[in-house]
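Retro notes (design track)

What went well: tokenization of the new backbones is finally stable.
What didn't: we kept losing track of which sequence belonged to which structure.
Fix going forward: every design gets posted as structure first, then sequence, in one message. First example under the new rule, 276 residues:
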């Protein structure tokens, strides 16, 4: 089933590479690199040249320990970049939870709202319900970014994530959101230990039973650093490997920093018949 978004029906027969554009001073991996709108606009164009299928623009750092900016600051960061990105001919996603930001970026032509808080912020659900074409990605997170990694606990991480995502799907349906607009994200690294993340990845295909495409975001995550011993700037190989593993377990959207490497790797796996 293609992903219905504001301007595009996104073909998910092959994994789509979503390039990350952080318009923030403090993101864990590339904070400050694209903090100025002009830098972020140029980065959008670079990611497209590298083969990105979708651009994902965010103005709030959600690294562990992060402090949430005001919605006015977040909007000031992302809106000029969104206005430029929608002229580039590809689907534009905005990584936000605030209804004020959601409303403004959708009015500016954004195609997808990618919300780590799964539209639980007061007013957010109404915003997407009133935008009858916009794509939506809802993600599982235990806790909030500032404290989510202190002591995450699950009796069964896969069952808990599955139940949460199923509940959010039901809420979206109740406000009139069509199934074709919805993609689900297990939330790797968001309120989960390394052990939780690996268990979730191994069982990820079971989430497909919910009947929706999956997005996976493994890029440069701390779990990869724990496994390899490498700092955040040296995790490209591990990130690409994790993205391929997620695709092999059914993910159809891969959210990444290292677009060119991921695009090449997916092509190799497709040629080898390891992923559709």
């Amino acid at each position: 089933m293609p992903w219905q978004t504001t301007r595009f029906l996104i073909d998910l027969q092959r994994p789509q590479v979503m390039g990350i554009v952080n318009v923030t001073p403090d993101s864990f991996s590339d904070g400050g690199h694209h903090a100025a709108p002009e830098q972020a606009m140029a980065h959008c164009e670079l990611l497209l040249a590298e083969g990105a299928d979708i651009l994902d623009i965010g103005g709030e750092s959600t690294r562990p320990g992060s402090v949430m900016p005001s919605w006015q600051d977040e909007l000031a960061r992302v809106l000029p970049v969104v206005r430029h990105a929608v002229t580039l001919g590809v689907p534009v996603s905005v990584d936000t939870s605030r209804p004020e930001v959601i409303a403004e970026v959708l009015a500016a032509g954004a195609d997808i709202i990618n919300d780590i808080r799964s539209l639980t912020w007061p007013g957010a659900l109404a915003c997407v319900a009133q935008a009858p074409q916009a794509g939506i990605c809802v993600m599982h997170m235990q806790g909030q970014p500032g404290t989510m990694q202190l002591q995450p606990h699950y009796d069964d991480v896969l069952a808990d994530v599955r139940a949460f995502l199923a509940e959010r799907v039901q809420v979206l349906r109740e406000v009139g959101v069509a199934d074709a607009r919805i993609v689900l994200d297990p939330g790797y690294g968001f309120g989960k230990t390394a052990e939780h993340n690996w268990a979730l990845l191994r069982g990820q295909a079971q989430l497909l039973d919910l009947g929706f495409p999956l997005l996976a975001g493994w890029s440069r995550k701390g779990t990869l650093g724990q496994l390899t011993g490498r700092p955040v700037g040296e995790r490209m190989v591990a990130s690409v490997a994790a993205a391929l593993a997620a695709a092999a377990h059914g993910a159809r959207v891969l959210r990444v920093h290292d677009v060119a490497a991921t695009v090449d790797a997916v092509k190799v796996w497709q040629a080898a018949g390891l992923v559709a």
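Added context from the reviewer: The chain has one domain: 14-271.
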